[in-house]
Design goal:
The complex is a heterodimer. By secondary structure, chain A is an all-alpha fold. Helix content of chain A is 73%, strand content 0%. Chain A is globular, with a radius of gyration of 25 Å. The mean pLDDT of chain B is 90. The chains are: A mainly alpha, B mainly alpha.
């Protein structure tokens, strides 16, 4: 036996023929282009905006002079709207997912709701803006307020949260449910005490991804009439507001070069908030996973 | 003792019923959203089409709602949407296809684990940032090669839009290529095919309808994108098929109207809902076709 293992076969080097090399070269080129675009988009904003970031920029209201203008109202508005959006979108989205995954009997109704949610995911955000304008701003008389903005963003991201939460719930093994039910728990107790905690990391990841999308979204909020010039902080949910992407858009459109820099700086702050949001999600997820491990 | 138990279960049963009702209500919210979209777009568009006949909306070639001589030809806006989204698809398709082939057939697991989330980064970038990039970097760069290119044009946001929909097309195509059964590859190798022949003559044909569906879903996203085209394509509705011209897309018009001071209930206000309805329908067509084709493709592959 020993002699046999001594004889090692020579490694066969397969020389790829040139068409294959060509394909691989194409693949590498595609990768290179994609990665360099990502780097370029980030670098572009950093180079233009970083010199503009200072404390005053965070604590000033917009102004006609680019060097005096700041994003105080915009970043406060973004955080305000996002908290309200999360408070509305997560319970409704997760609730819908729990119903569809754990309670709904398979039949025409659940198929209909499913098809419906899949289609909602394909509706452009700006169309949701028109919906928010007519329903929340006009019919419900909320005005161009933080609340109307949060309601609009809620319906923009609701389908994403439902789909992600359903996937997370589906990943929980059936045996967990059977064990809980066998011990006499009701179906809701089973879901609340056993299925939901296990699915929570997945639900959280999906929801944060959806909320990140909402945070960068300007179009539906412009449509409901969010202001582009706000020189006060929104206090009540019925106050007018602006958000970072809208403020950045407003500055991009101005002719003076100073405003372009402001726009870049506002976008950097938006990115920082996005990173913070995702960082919170990562920490929460790892803690939850440590607590409830299968 | 027995009675107390029964009371407990009765209380539990009530709670159970309340909770399930609440959960069902949240599921019904999504149906409510669909109906209110149809209701709102339908109602306001109906008001619009009372004043502007549908045939004029569909056949006129100019869009000038604020001029004295008002024209409402959706073709002028639709051509802008068509231009930017087709440029996006032309840019995104070859790159996505190469990336998907690389990810599914050539990349090592480590490479894949690094590349997939990196490409997904493109999907997480806010669209205002894409707009900034298109207006201040891509357009000046293009102007070096095409000196006649105006500051606002369809080409630059179209190209950038391509990178925006690239992660969608890549990951959906990658999924489909991965779900082509290994047996098909093995059979091709057994017949003496090289890897390249296997990829192009066995794997890609099997995944073809799945890849087409990925493009349709990417297009649905491109059609609805707003901020990027609002920032970099301009605000002048022109019926043109020249990528060098400035254009206004359907989505950009809606944003444009909302930024101005248009009184509620005016014809222009209603016009933005008619444009919204057209936008909704066109992206729905792509989305539905994509979803249906994708399900069929995946079902077929599972049956192979």
């Amino acid at each position: 036996m020993k002699e046999l293992t001594m004889v090692k076969p020579k490694p066969v080097t397969v020389v790829s023929p040139w068409p294959e090399r060509l394909l691989l070269a194409g693949c590498w080129l595609a990768l290179l282009v994609t990665l360099s675009i990502i780097v370029a988009i980030l670098a572009d904003v950093m180079v233009d905006g970083l010199p503009r970031l200072n404390i005053k920029f965070f604590t000033s209201y917009p102004s006609r002079r680019p060097e005096d203008a700041g994003i105080f109202a915009a970043w406060v508005g973004t955080i305000y709207v996002m908290i309200l959006t999360a408070a509305m979108a997560m319970p409704i989205g997760v609730g819908a997912a729990i119903y569809l995954e754990e309670f709904a009997r398979p039949g025409w109704f659940s198929r209909f709701v499913e098809l419906n949610i899949s289609n909602l995911a394909g509706v452009p955000a700006i169309v949701y803006g028109l919906l928010g304008l007519q329903v929340f701003v006009r019919w419900f008389q909320m005005g161009e307020s933080v609340l109307a903005g949060a309601c609009t963003l809620t319906i923009v991201i609701l389908p994403v949260i439902v789909v992600a939460s359903r996937e997370a719930l589906r990943a929980v093994p059936r045996s967990i449910r059977e064990a809980a039910l066998a011990l006499g728990a009701t179906r809701w107790e089973t879901v609340r005490d056993h299925v939901l905690p296990l699915a929570l990391p997945g639900i959280l990841t999906g929801s944060i991804l959806a909320l990140s999308r909402a945070m960068g979204e300007a179009a539906p909020l412009i449509t409901i009439g969010a202001l582009t010039y706000v020189a006060f902080l929104p206090v009540s949910p019925l106050d007018s507001f602006t958000v970072l992407p809208i403020q950045a858009y407003n500055w991009v459109g101005r002719p003076q070069p100073g405003f372009a820099q402001n726009a870049a700086a506002a976008i950097i702050v938006l990115l920082i908030l996005l990173l913070l949001l995702n960082g919170i999600a990562i920490v929460l997820r790892s803690q939850l996973q440590r607590r409830y491990r299968l | 003792m027995r009675r107390r138990d029964q009371r407990l279960t009765a209380a539990k049963r009530t709670r159970e019923r309340i909770v399930v009702t609440l959960l069902a209500l949240s599921a019904v919210v999504s149906v409510g959203i669909t109906f209110s979209i149809l209701l709102v777009l339908g109602l306001e568009s109906y008001g619009f089409f009372q004043e502007v006949p549908l045939w004029r909306f569909l056949t006129e070639k100019e869009w000038s709602p604020s001029f004295y001589d008002k024209r409402f030809g959706i073709i002028a806006l639709a051509s802008g949407t068509f231009l930017t989204s087709s440029i996006a698809l032309i840019v995104a398709l070859p790159i996505s296809l190469l990336l998907a082939i690389y990810l599914s057939e050539y990349a090592t697991p480590q490479m894949r684990n690094f590349l997939k989330p990196t490409i997904e980064l493109l999907a997480g970038i806010p669209s205002v940032m894409y707009g900034y990039f298109a207006l201040f970097t891509v357009t000046p760069l293009l102007q070096k090669f095409i000196p006649s290119l105006p500051a606002f044009n369809a080409l630059s946001p179209g190209i950038v839009l391509g990178f925006m929909i690239l992660p969608t097309i890549t990951s959906l195509s990658d999924d489909v290529i991965l779900s082509v059964p290994q047996r098909i590859r093995d059979a091709s190798y057994a017949l003496g095919a090289t890897k390249l022949q296997t990829v192009f003559r066995a794997v890609l044909p099997a995944a073809r309808s799945g890849i087409i569906s990925a493009c349709l879903l990417g297009l649905a996203r491109a059609v609805g994108e707003t901020m990027l085209v609002t920032i970099a394509a301009g605000q002048v509705p022109v019926f043109t098929l020249s990528p060098l011209s400035q254009v206004q897309t359907m989505s950009a018009y809606i944003a444009f109207v909302s930024l101005g001071d248009i009184p509620w209930g005016s014809l222009e206000y209603k016009a933005s809902f008619a444009v919204g309805l057209s936008l909704f329908l066109s992206s729905l067509v792509f989305h539905l076709a994509g979803v249906i084709l994708r399900e069929r493709a995946l079902r077929l592959l599972r049956g192979l």
